[in-house]
């Protein structure tokens, strides 16, 4: 059994819809389990992600970057990073944007 966590932020629902589609894709794989985490919720409970074999991160594109909420989540993981606590996990990511460019 592989346990996949999808960690995402979404201000207006588009990235949330994409996150649901990613989660549905995970569940189509034999032996894969999926759990969804809202970035600002799990930022204060990072141990909830320790059991994941893979993490897929999703953020809206805001001003050519990740959203502020998602960056807060990223900053919250700095201790995990320093200890290489998630070193052996697979990782992926996605974003939604209004255009093909970084700023609009
Ligand atoms: C504050 C803000 C900044 C944005 N900046 C960009 C941008 O730099 N490039 C772009 O293509 N779209 C930009 N967009 C459009 C969003 O990326 C797009 O609407 C996205 O689907 C929003 O995702 P969400 O509904 O999950 O919040 C911006 C939207 C907002 C609200």
UniProtKB/TrEMBL annotation:
Domain named Flavodoxin-like is located at 4-104
Q: Please give the Pfam families that the UniProt record associates with this protein.
A: FMN_red
Q: SUPFAM superfamilies, from UniProt?
A: Flavoproteins
InterPro entries from the xrefs? Flavodoxin/NO_synth, Flavodoxin_CS, Flavoprotein-like_sf, FMN_Rdtase-like_dom
Which residue windows are transmembrane per the record?
Answer: none
Protein known as: Flavodoxin family protein
- What species is given as this protein's source? Amycolatopsis rhabdoformis
């Amino acid at each position: 059994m592989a346990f996949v966590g999808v960690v995402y932020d979404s201000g207006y629902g588009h990235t949330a819809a994409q996150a649901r589609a990613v989660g549905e894709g995970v569940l189509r794989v034999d032996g894969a389990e999926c759990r969804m985490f809202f970035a600002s919720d799990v930022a204060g409970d990072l141990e909830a992600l320790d059991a994941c074999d893979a993490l897929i991160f999703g953020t809206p594109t805001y001003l050519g970057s990740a959203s502020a909420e998602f960056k807060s989540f990223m900053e919250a993981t700095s201790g995990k990073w320093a200890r290489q606590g998630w070193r052996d996990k697979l990782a992926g990511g996605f974003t939604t944007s209004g255009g093909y460019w970084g700023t609009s």
